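Give me the 3D structure for Luciferase-like monooxygenase.
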Amino acid sequence: MGTFESRPRFLLSAFLMNTSSHILGGMWRHPEAQQHKFNELELWVDLAKKLEDAKFDNLFFADVVGLYGDHEGGWASHVRKGMQVPSHDPMVLLSALAATTKDIGLAMTSSVIQAHPFQFARQLSTLDHLSRGRVAWNIVTSVLENSHRNFGGASLVAHDDRYAWAEEYVEAAYKLWEGSWEDDALLADKESGIYADPARVNKINHRGELYSIDGPHLALPSAQRTPFLFQAGSSPRGSQFAATHAEATFLFAPHPQYVAKKNAQLTSNLQAAGRTREDIKVFAGLSFVVGSTEAEAKALEAEYDQYLDPHAIIAHIGGGIGVDLGGLDLDTPLGNVKTEGAQGVLEAALASTPGRNPTLRDLAHYRAKAQQIVGTPEQIVDELERWQDAGIDGLNIMNHILPGSYDNFIEGVLPELHKRGLAQREYVPGSLRQKFFGRGDKLPQNHPAAQYRGVFSELSAANTEVSLQEQV
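Predicted structure for Luciferase-like monooxygenase (472 residues):
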């Protein structure tokens, strides 16, 4: 297809979750699958080192903080199938991976409902220090009603109201990360005994509808200050939020035409937010079945199909949109469902079956197959170039089995990507933001977080009873 001279490389991300069953339900049962050992650190350390040796850009950990909605009349089927329950905390895991890797990015999902922004900002700054600037935050608002109830909510907050919540949450976090400590505040001067200049450490005095935070930020500013920012919403409001705040966004896209449509929407929203398409990277969630011949790839696909559980996949989708789809025939049409849940999931599902309403079987196929590329390395990379032409910058690579899916990609697809100049062979020095964009560790001036740099310093200095200069 295209020549490698005319194409940028793909950013490569491993799409993971600290659980036994993430996207492709049932695959944990495969004889070679090791994801049922998700609670063992060795599984993740070995995988992270393998992906770092292959020069993947980052590990991306999804997360939930509650059960998916009822399936078959209740939540018991989720437990029976291990459908993202049990699920362990990605932040704790990433702190261990920060100590056992050197360059690969460490991205984690955290919902605005699960942690107060003051505490969360401190945790992320700490992790960014320990990883030397490799941390990313995937900003989510939680589509699961049980998640909201687990953190004191009476019910699922309306879709657009959740994004209003997220707007205040990130505003408060930006103030802490960008505005609280000035670059020259830390002195650590042993002779004078002055550790930090109070005139350069600022309270933020945030007063909003949901949060009241005095500050200052208790953590020192890290290499990136604000961690690298991901966002995965694909609804119109989600795309608007991503255009305003995200440095990378990812799509569950059934085909390149859907990518092109979303890319055009995102580009328009970026312009409205005072940013450009060059300010954000777009990832597609894709899985791969690789064979040295087409017949070998098809045989492996058939093997995987034996372990896929369409009912687990339907439970996953139904829980995300807030509808119990359990007990229905798989050929039942879903229709045009309105929900406060993951609206982008429905939109993508409908787009994957043009001309008719999708059935439940269609939806299961959409999740398991429409985002799956099967073939030889050459065939797969040919197809990936079509996705790149539609507007994809990176791949968020889903797995059938751990670690085998990434072994197959590294051994099969990656050499062909290298051959065409479409994957990096070495890491760029510096933070994750520098590695992605090559323009420094900090957020650029056209990002909304930048407005908080220096705005609190004058007020802070006026309220500091004794400044460093006065002591001298």
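The CA atoms of residues 250 and 283 lie 4 Å apart. Let me know if you want a second pass.
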